[in-house]
Specification:
This protein has 316 residues and is α/β, with parallel strands linked by helices. The chain is built from 9 helices and 14 strands. The radius of gyration is 19 Å and the shape is globular. 45% of the residues are buried.
């Protein structure tokens, strides 16, 4: 199976503190970490580490941060023939602040103005023969062209933000994995613990994007999906370990889902695999560096602690 990931590649700096950030004073941090990041890049890392070939389409700047990201991805055996190195745009970077006392994170992202709106990769040579394409919605025009070049590929979108380009791609793909915030914004509703309310949100999502199988991630509760005509929740796997760092957990979920689908799992098995992978990742520090080993994921799944159950008023 051939897989392509297209989207954001950034340089991540992560620091920790046991108290909230305070404006106007010196704040002290510990546990600084430096790595490559970005939704599509992190997803590609999962796929490559688990042994499946993956090509990455995206862009970095011709600067020190870009060189670091390039070297990091190359060391993970991600094919970078389609990673464009630009002399005009700097490599985006994110400064992630973890508040360990409240299990929260604050993300500050820096990028050139040209990188907002409708960004372009640059010179892209599109390949054919992909079985799966995963996009994070950043490079809309290039994603559409890649899909057109690969009409038989199954397509997945990490729908983490609402804009015209992401909405356009959601109408094209086979699988939408979106955040709770995304579902709330596009439907004008608010997901909560009420079954009828969440069924209504899900039905509105289906009406907006009838082509796709839709997964709404709802944090520690798991994912809201449809099975046998019913709205259900696939509960999050609970490792029993304390939460250390939730950064990149969503990206890891998307990469693990795509890996599983490309390797013969059915849709619901792939969701269990992805949910377990993401849940294990948050028990370790570092975004991309928290990806669990494949053996750890399969052992957790074999213990039978991840399963699908009907969503009701008591679901948590």
């Amino acid at each position: 199976m051939r897989i392509a990931c297209i989207g954001n590649a950034v340089y991540d700096i992560t620091v920790s503190s046991n108290k909230p950030l305070v404006e106007g004073v010196r704040n002290s941090f510990s546990g600084a970490g430096f790595t490559a990041g970005g939704p599509a890049s992190n997803a590609a890392s999962v796929i490559a580490r688990y042994g499946s070939p993956v090509d990455f389409y995206g862009r970095v700047g011709n600067d020190l941060n870009g060189q670091y990201v390039y070297n990091k991805m190359q060391s993970e055996n991600i094919n970078l023939e389609h990673l464009y190195v630009s002399n005009e745009v700097m490599t985006p970077f994110s400064f992630v602040i973890l508040n360990t006392s409240a299990d929260t994170r604050t993300i500050c992202t820096v990028r050139d103005e040209i990188d907002y709106g409708t960004p372009k990769i640059g010179n892209v040579q599109y390949e054919t023969g992909y079985d799966y394409i995963l996009t994070d919605g950043k490079y809309v025009e290039e994603t559409i062209k890649l899909i057109e070049k690969n009409p038989n590929a199954k397509t997945v979108i990490d729908a983490g933000r609402v804009n015209e380009g992401v909405i356009t791609l959601c109408r094209l793909v086979n699988y939408i994995i979106c955040s709770e915030d995304f579902a709330n914004e596009v439907t004008g509703c608010v997901i909560n613990d009420d079954y009828e309310n969440n069924r209504m949100v899900y039905e509105k999502m289906k009406a907006l994007f009838p082509k796709a199988a839709i997964t709404i991630t709802v944090g520690s509760r798991g994912q809201i999906i449809e099975k046998d005509g019913e709205v259900i929740v696939n509960p999050a796997y609970n490792s029993g370990r304390p939460i250390v760092d939730t950064n990149a957990a969503g990206d890891i979920f998307h990469g693990a889902f795509t890996y599983a689908m490309a390797n013969g799992y059915d849709y619901y098995e792939a969701l269990d695999f992805a949910g377990t992978t993401a849940s294990l990742s948050i028990t370790k520090p570092g975004g991309r560096d928290s990806i669990p080993e494949l053996e750890e994921v399969t052992q957790a799944l074999n213990r039978g602690t991840s399963y699908v159950k009907k969503l009701n008023h008591k679901a948590s």
